[in-house]
Every structure is written in structure tokens, then in C-alpha cells.
Amino acid sequence: MRQKRHEAGQIFVQTFLNIDKNSTSIKAPEEIVTGPDESAETTDTLKLCPHEEFLKLCKERAEEIYPIKEIKARTRLALIICNTEFDHLPLKNGAAHDIMVMKGLLEGLGYSVDVEEKLTARDMESVLCRFAACEEHKSSDSTFLVFMSHGILDGICGTMHSDENPDVLPYDTIFWIFNNRNCLSLKDKPKVIIVQACRGDNVAWRDITKGSLFITQLITCFQKYSWCCHLEEVFRKVQKAFEKPSVKAQMPTIERLSMTRYFYLFPGN
Asked: Which GO annotations describe the biological process of this protein (predicted)?
């Protein structure tokens, strides 16, 4: 049995998890952040950080923030895994829009994005292992992993999942693949994991064309605030978006943040 607390603590990771708001049967893992699922509008514009502000923050908070590699030399990679069609679970309508806007956001933040779809749990694990072994991570300063699928609180469902024959990628496996021992190229570098995975036996709130509220609000906050806010602050902005009484969805909660410094994305730098 893998030592979850030890392995997860070795990687600097922030994880968002979107689960069905009515699910109470299983306790959420301590690394997970839960979020809602409904439709909303985005700004469609990523605000860039002025170079002067970038230099100022890097100088003033040098001991507090993760270093950013030179834009011309770094090779940032991101991975999106999305399952929309399942053998035994409902179709995830609107997921195509979520993929498009998330890919656009990550590319705007300077990441080369690989998109993988229609994967079993074993396939997802294989894709993650290959991604973790990419040489480009050596000259990168961070990475993003985005999962969109059905899921349970312990993991993400593969395309063959059913109650009788589970097909689940455990969150522990993701943390194990990307810990400092197994992924040396990303050692001591921020790894951000975003999971949009509603329960398979409940159809989560989503718009067939605009996708999920969780993804859309997340993107909106990145577009508006990542130029001046570190990652944890951006996530708090996402939480604040759901304090409005008109938003009938579960408040996102940050259960654990294992980064030891502040992670600024400094878009445009």
C-alpha cells in the first residue's frame, strides 16, 4: 500500500475537484478541492502582467515565490484528459466546450497542451506516466493536469466504469506518478491538478454549449486575476464567485495546499 500522505507531501500541488453536490457517502481526500458545476460566462481575455510589475514582484518576493524560467528558454507542458462517452454512464454534454476554453487558457499561460480523450483507467495511468517522463519538463518551471470525466470521491472514472466492474484511476496514483521520486524533471516545481468529475449516478448541472460552471468560473478568475495574484489567491476568487445567493451550486473548498511558496503565473512574461 502506498504511503499517501508522504508521497503527496513530496510534490508541490494544488488540486481542484468538482464533485456532485449531493454526494455524501465517501469522505473527500485531504488534497482535494471541491467545486460546483453549472454554466456561466467568461471574459474571453487573459489579462497580461506588465513586465515592470513582473520584475518588481520577482525582486521584492524572491524568497517567497517559485522561480519563473525565461520565456524563450522554458518548455511548459500541460495535459488535459477528458472522457465524454462511457459504456455504462451518461454522456457528458458540454465537455467539448470545456476542453476548448481550458486549452485556450493554458496556451495563453505559455503551456503546450496535449489533449487525450476516451480513456480507461489503465489508459489514463499510461498517459500520465508518459507525460511525467517528457524531457520538456526539465526546462519547465511548472505543469498543469486537467481531468474531465465522471468520478467518485476516491478517483476518476474510465470509459468502462460501472458499479459492478469499477474502472477508476485513484487520486493516489496521480500523486504517486508525479512525486519527487518518480518525476525528477518536475522536482520541487508547482504541479496544478484540476478535476471536473461529477458522480456517474447523478447528472450534474451543465450547459450543453457553455460547459460547466466550475470550469468556466475557474477560467474567468484566471483571466482576470492571474496577472497580479498568486495561485491560491486566484482559487479564493473562484470561491468568492459562489457566495452569491443566486448561484445554486456547492461552494468550492480548499482542503489542502502543499506548495511551500507562492506560485505566480505572470502571463506574458
From this structure: proteolysis; regulation of inflammatory response
